[in-house]
Amino acid sequence: NIAEFVAYAKKNPGKVFWGDAGAGGNQHLYLEYFRSLAGLEMEAVHYKGGGPMMIDLLSNRVQFSLNALALVEPHIIAGKLRPLMVVANKRNPKIPDVPTVAEAGFKPMEACSNWMGLHAPKGTPDAIVQTIYKALSEAMQTEAVKTGLAKMGLYPVMSTPQQFAARIANDYELFGKVAKASNIRVE
């Protein structure tokens, strides 16, 4: 479990490596945030994409990563990877025995849950934004969309345009601090 992993990493500073799909990307920021929350001295290995990182994760050249369930599910089923926690505010039905970040003691990590959003150009009239929002809200409630998302280990979570804008602003502020504290620079 994640508590055992954290204990192991603390007892072995500098010997536990995480892999991410590229320096400065979401995975990198999220793993830096986890490292700081857990108080770990893990080394980062930045790959040029998820494929090379996954090869090294499966061969234990890196011991930890943060990935979408759709990418790792075949390896979990095959017994090659073990999920330690779900970065979400509720358990994933595809891996129901795996605790959420809050259940694992890392509630702030909920900010790292991946999301997808629909964007419109600045200045789009509010009436058009509301029309799109209404249509998207209705589509997200259909069985076809729910089933399609569930196959990928995802579930629909709707927010208003205002809530979505607030989420983006909060993420920008939080991960700006993480980047600064971790000395991550845009290259």
Descriptive report:
The protein contains seven helices and two strands. It is mostly helical. It has a domain of 113 residues: Periplasmic binding protein-like II (D-Maltodextrin-Binding Protein, domain 2), CATH 3.40.190.10. The protein is globular and about 55 Å long. The model has no long low-confidence stretch (mean pLDDT 91).
Q: How does the SSE layout of this entry go?
A:
Layout: H1 2-11, E1 17-20, H2 26-38, E2 43-46, H3 50-58, H4 69-77, H5 126-140, H6 143-151, H7 161-181
Parallel strand pairs: 1-2
Q: What summary fits the major beta sheet? A: 2 strands, parallel
Average residue pLDDT: 91
Cα gyration radius (Å) = 18 Å
Name the strands of the widest sheet in spatial order. 1-2
CATH superfamily of the domain at 2-114: Periplasmic binding protein-like II
What is the helical fraction, as a range of percent? 40-55%
